Amino acid sequence: MQLSRNTVRRILRTHEPCEQASSTANAADAPPREQLQALFERARGNVVRVAQLLAAEHGQSVRYSTLTRWVREAQLREPPQRSGEYLLGPGLEMQFDTSPHRVKLGEHTRIVQCAGLVLAYSRRLYVQYYPRFTRLEAKDFLLQAMRFMDGSAQRCVIDNSSVILAGGAGADAVIAPEMQAFARALGFHFMAHRVNHPDRKGRIERIFAWVERGFLPGRTCTDVADLNQQVLQWCELIANQKPKRSLGMSPQAAYLIEKPYLQSLPSVLPPVYDVLERSVDLMGFVSVHTNRYSVPERWVGRPVTVYLYPSELTIHARGALIATHPRLIGRHDARHTLPEHHHHQPRARERQPAPEEQWLRAQHPTLDRYVSALRAGQPGRAVRMLRRLLQIQRTYPAEPFLAAVEQALKFGLLDLSRLERLVLKHVAGDFFLLDATADEPTQHPDTAIDPNTDEPEDA
């Protein structure tokens, strides 16, 4: 009645009769069936939109529950149909689908594709995970699933995924030629259900929720290979051993009944691979799915053919095998290099000091500091400056040279021409006569002039 408790208490205290308060419309307020049908058709079956049209055009505010009752009474909607059940005999059908799952691999949580296949009669299940799911992974999964089942059913029901289909949908679906040939080699054919009808493959659809809630929680896996090993063990020991009420037995027991009806696998199974054309880059690698694989150096810049298998890849040039690498699954921008391919790996050259620098250093701490200052202050010209400094050192005596270098360091003087003038100032009194008033040559006290030859002789 949409009355508050206080209102009810007040009415009970006064013992006065009350009228039922209700905002809902009575059956007599319902619009004529023709008018309701016209509004229902204009709203394309949307009852919320019908309520909006009634309020806007007729000024009639109707609650949603009342409006749906009017629609049911006017029989504007068909009553819900009872859900049916697909009864499939042994060996007749199998169902295949994929679903993205968030899985913790090591320390990181990643989205990987869960691929599952189930036999429609016995419900025997096979599940595997892939970092990416293309036609190569689809063929690899189907081949491993047929080996697990030791046979195949007559048809495989799929959705309208572009991994299997080349175009169309439902009954008009066109299976990709390579997938159709692959299925024919294993003894079955694909059948795509109509769009928005996932119940057609409900046996595999329900499995994904079970895997996501019953297998993944609490699992720790190092990589995709470890995850696939654990999920395969889960399929064999738990999923296929648990009794089902619809079967009255476990899927493994029902599989023993279905096994004689399965199509036998051929003695030679079709290979699973992709062919890619690549060119070797200047560093001696080929790029496949963001990862790089080494090639012998003599093939740099040349075209090669890559055969991509589920677990490895081979590189061929001119019809000859030149390299075999394991696939880097679940990794991005990684490299795999074989040691015999790149014999001379380019290494960062260690910077060796110039010979002039080696000759100047380790003679005196002052000279070492000046050499370092020249290296830092003259980028690109240091060798030429060091060569000039070495020439100055070899030209003049050591003591005046080191005194001039120490004075240049004090004032931050890196101009070698000015440094040489400083050296000349220190040696001027020892090697040159700078007194202009002296008219006669001075005689060294340790030498004497021979009067006969006018040549100095030792004292």
Structure explained in plain terms:
The chain is α+β, with helices and mostly antiparallel strands and 459 residues long. It has four domains: 5-73, no CATH class; 93-261, Nucleotidyltransferase, domain 5, CATH 3.30.420; 274-336, OB fold (Dihydrolipoamide Acetyltransferase, E2P) (Beta Barrel), CATH 2.40.50; 355-431, no CATH class. It is built from 14 helices and 16 strands. It has a five-stranded mixed beta sheet, with helices on both faces. It has a four-stranded antiparallel beta sheet with strand order 8-11-12-13, with no helix packed on it. Residues 18-28 and 436-459 have low confidence and may be disordered.
Write the layout of secondary structure elements.
Blueprint: H1 5-14, H2 33-42, H3 47-57, H4 64-73, E1 93-105, E2 108-119, E3 125-130, H5 135-149, E4 155-158, E5 165-167, E6 174-175, H6 177-186, E7 189-192, H7 202-214, H8 224-239, H9 251-258, E8 274-279, E9 285-288, E10 291-294, E11 303-308, E12 312-317, E13 320-326, E14 335-336, H10 355-360, H11 365-377, H12 382-395, H13 398-411, H14 416-431, E15 447-449, E16 456-458
Parallel strand pairs: 1-4, 4-7, 10-14
Antiparallel strand pairs: 1-2, 2-3, 5-6, 8-11, 9-10, 11-12, 12-13, 15-16
Report the CATH superfamily of the largest domain: Ribonuclease H-like superfamily/Ribonuclease H
Helix coverage percent of residues? 25-40%
Q: Measure the end-to-end span.
A: 142 Å
- Detail the poorly predicted runs: 18-28, 436-459
Structural class: alpha+beta
Tell me which CATH architecture of the largest domain applies here: 2-Layer Sandwich
Name the average pLDDT: 85
Q: What is the radius of gyration?
A: 46 Å
Task: State the strand order across the main sheet.
Answer: 3-2-1-4-7
* CATH C-level of the largest domain: Alpha Beta
* Number of β-strand runs: 16
Q: Quick one: biggest sheet?
A: 5 strands, mixed
Fill in the CATH topology of the largest domain: Nucleotidyltransferase, domain 5
